[in-house]
Structures are given as C-alpha cells and as structure tokens.
Design brief:
The protein is α/β, with parallel strands linked by helices. The protein has ten helices and eleven strands. It has a single domain, classed as TIM Barrel (Alpha-Beta Barrel), CATH 3.20.20. The strands form two sheets. Strands 1-2-3-5-8-9-10-11 form an eight-stranded parallel barrel, surrounded by four helices. A two-stranded antiparallel ribbon has the order 6-7.
Length: about 300
C-alpha cells in the first residue's frame, strides 16, 4: 500500500515561505513516500457553502494555493523517485493544448513520474475566462482528456474532433516519457463517471463516500474495465486515510493505519493524508511522514 501526501494548508504550515514545499518534497522523497499531490484552485470566492463533499470547506478564501503543475515542476528537479500528482487539477480551467503540453513537459522533466488527477471544479467564481464557462465544463473536460490522449499517444501529425475541441494535422512535442499518463478522476461514481474512468482513465479518487460505498464502487469499476477488455487489476484507487488523533492532539499512527489491510482487500491501491488538515507546524511534517512510512512497511 503506497502513501500519498497532499500538500495543503500552506498558510499554516509554510507562512510566508511557500517555497519550503520543495524542501518537504525532498524530505518525503528521501523517506520513501510514494506520491506527492497538490490540490488546485486558481481563485476562491466567498461561497464556500457550495462545497459538495463535506459539511464545510476546510480553508478560508484567503488560503494560498500554488498552481499544481508549476509547483510539481519545481519539485521534479529536487526529487528522484516520488510520484508527482494532482488532486484534483480543475481541467476545464485549462486550454486543452496548453494542458497537454504542460503535462507532457512535466513528465519529461520528471523522467516519467506524473499522475494526473482531474475534476470539474465546484467554485463557480473560478470560471471567469471567455469560453471556459461553469456550465458545460464536464463535456469540455471529457473532450480535453480524449484529445490529450491522442496527442500523447499517437504518432504525429494528430487530428481530433469532438463537440468542444477540434484540430487537424498538428505536432505537439515532446510527448510524455510514460507509455500512458495515468489519469485519475475525482468525484461521485455516477454512470457517466464510471464510463469516463473505464474509457479514458486509470484511477478513481473518491470524495466523500463511505467505506462500504467505496467497496461497491471499486467492484463496479472493475466490472466496467473487464467489459472494455481492460484488466481490472489496472484500476488505481486512492482513498483518504482517516487519522486517529489522541487526547494530546497528536496523530496515533498505529491506530490510523489499522484500517489499511481492509482497504487493500477492497482494492484500494494508495492511501492519502492531507498535511494541512491536522498538522500545525512545519516541524511536525518530517516525524509524521517517517512514522507513517514505517507503519505502512515502506
């Protein structure tokens, strides 16, 4: 079971030295953390009550958010083996060609370590650019990933046509180092989501469902993979690990990882922790990561 670490809560953990995330990434790499993930918001409006995945959004509008692909490019040069993920990148906010080029560039510079987690976004206030409206964003995301797949995987020149994107006879080099960029979708497992993961994706990022619902979802996705001639074993599932906090306010690592064997038996491939949800200082990060890697047998 791999450990994925989401870098969030930047204001509390890093204050006015956001560049220190690179130091933390280097430390995580040395400790054997499997994956480092950045969430994504290009802007935040005041309507945090629209957050659909829990009772409340965990950060204020003033919270800083590094642009994920830019941050991961800096981290690529400071690390050797840790996977570089987004969780989730709001794909409909990016022009498709720029998204394809940026992800391919990051994969080349990291020597094949990119995991692209994507979603549609929920903050209407972020969708201010002409041609990138909040309404219609799901179709744009689907078309963008299908087009990116063509640019990444097909011999150029490449042509593509869909409802929202079309191009003819173009080159976009360099292409990724990985034979296939892993694309992970975040969100509820509706029938359209099942189809897009099975057709275009490689993994699921559950946001909000119970453990029992995740188990059912995994079986549904594995069946959908099989229907399309794909091996169900190809499916990746990254699940947030509920952390147990003791009376002293510290994380009880042993208790927190007790559910991991059950999650693995369900088909979960990676467990995730978000640093900004529970740590209070930067000095806490290193010892916590070391204890988590040791507890998971890393």
């Amino acid at each position: 079971m791999g450990l994925s670490v989401t870098i969030s809560g930047l204001d509390r953990l890093f204050g006015d030295d956001l560049g220190a995330v690179v130091d933390v990434a280097r430390q995580a790499d040395d400790l054997g953390v499997a994956q480092l993930v950045f969430p994504d918001h290009v802007a935040i409006g005041p309507r945090l009550d629209r957050y659909p995945y829990s009772s409340r959004f965990p950060y204020p509008p003033s919270e800083p958010w590094l642009e994920p692909l830019t941050a991961l490019a800096a981290i690529a040069g400071a690390t050797r083996q840790i996977r570089l993920g987004t969780g989730v990148l709001i794909a409909p906010l990016r022009p498709m060609l720029l998204l394809a080029k940026t992800v391919a560039t990051l994969d080349v510079l990291s020597r094949g370590r990119v995991d692209l987690g994507i979603g549609t976004g929920w903050q209407r206030e972020e969708f201010v650019e002409p041609g990138m409206a909040f309404v219609g964003r799901t179709q744009r995301m689907d078309d963008a990933i299908a087009a990116c797949r063509q640019l990444w995987d097909s011999e150029p020149p490449v042509s593509f046509e869909s409802e929202t994107i079309s191009f003819s006879e173009i080159w976009s080099e360099p292409r990724p180092v990985q034979t296939r960029i892993p694309v992970w979708y975040g969100g509820a497992l509706t029938p359209p989501m099942i189809a897009r993961i099975a057709d275009l994706g490689d993994g699921w990022l559950p946001l909000g469902p119970t453990t029992d619902e995740i188990a059912v979802g995994i079986e549904t996705l594995r069946h959908a993979f099989g229907e399309r001639g794909r091996s169900p074993d190809e499916l990746g599932v990254r699940v947030g690990l509920p952390l147990v906090v003791g009376d002293d306010g510290a994380v009880d690592v042993s208790a927190s990882v007790a559910s991991v064997p059950h999650l693995a038996a369900m088909g979960v491939t990676t467990v995730s922790v978000a640093l900004g949800r529970f740590l209070t200082t930067r000095a806490d990060i290193g010892p916590f990561l070391r204890d988590m890697v040791d507890a998971l047998g890393g």
